[in-house]
From TrEMBL:
Gene3D superfamilies: 1.20.120.1770. It holds the Pfam family Cytochrom_B561. Keywords: Electron transport, Heme, Iron, Membrane, Metal-binding, Transmembrane, Transmembrane helix, Transport. This is ascorbate ferrireductase (transmembrane). Coiled coil: none annotated. Residues 13-215 form the Cytochrome b561 domain. InterPro entries: CYB561D1/2, Cyt_b561/ferric_Rdtase_TM.
């Protein structure tokens, strides 16, 4: 039961509902795009399915894992959450490299130019920032070598993570404006697809800003 007054309880429950909705939307959008990439559809659409599973599901769960409002991974100890976070991010990097390799090979076979669209350039930028973010995470293991306090390193890591997540959302949404996707998803249903990723993005942004970026003082 909630021990706070009614307005505080209301905001707590609203935050919990928002986090649960972010989980559901990330999983639901992944399933929907996976169904659209059934056998016989465009190879490019299958790439979108992989990248959607990668960024909208793995990245979302990897960040919301630390949400105080609720996560499907019930781990009380922060150490266990950190280990699971590392595992999920390793899957992110592996899937990103696999998806990028598949897209390059597909373009070579079909003799299509590389980096010819905004989506492809955003994808390369997102993959690059993901690798840099992973390197930033590794630095958290060796704070003394960088002569920075752990709280400050965590702030940098969280800030970079937010940038990576927002880039990933923009990359996925940009693919939904391509001709092949609009030919597959038609009518009013198409308008929902670019909007759906925005809600988990807002939840993730709120979590990171509340946990790190809004702190007035950082322990040095």
């Amino acid at each position: 039961t909630c021990q706070c007054n009614w307005p505080e309880c209301y905001h707590v429950w609203m935050r919990r509902v928002a986090v649960i909705a972010a989980h559901v939307i990330a999983l639901g959008l992944t399933v929907l795009i996976s169904l659209l990439s059934r056998p016989g559809t465009s190879e490019y659409l299958k790439c979108l399915s992989l990248l959607t599973i990668l960024y909208l599901l793995c990245l979302t769960e990897g960040i919301l894992l630390f949400s105080p409002e609720g996560t499907p991974f019930y781990l009380k100890a922060r150490k266990g959450k950190v280990r699971l976070h590392w595992f999920i991010q390793a899957l992110v990097l592996l899937a990103a490299a696999t998806g990028m390799g598949f897209m390059v090979a597909s373009n070579n076979v079909s003799e299509r130019p590389h980096l010819a669209t905004w989506h492809s350039m955003l994808g390369v930028g997102t993959l690059t920032t993901t690798v840099l973010q992973a390197a930033c995470g590794i630095c958290l293991l060796f704070p003394k070598l960088l002569k920075l306090s752990p709280p400050r390193l965590k702030l940098y890591h969280a800030t970079c993570g937010l940038v990576v997540y927002l880039l990933a959302i923009v990359t996925v949404v940009s693919a939904m404006f391509s001709d092949w996707f609009q030919a597959t998803v038609k009518g009013g249903m198409w308008y929902a697809f670019p909007l759906l990723p925005m809600f988990p993005a807002l939840v993730v942004m709120n979590q990171i800003t509340n946990a790190y970026l809004l702190r007035k003082k950082i322990t040095t």
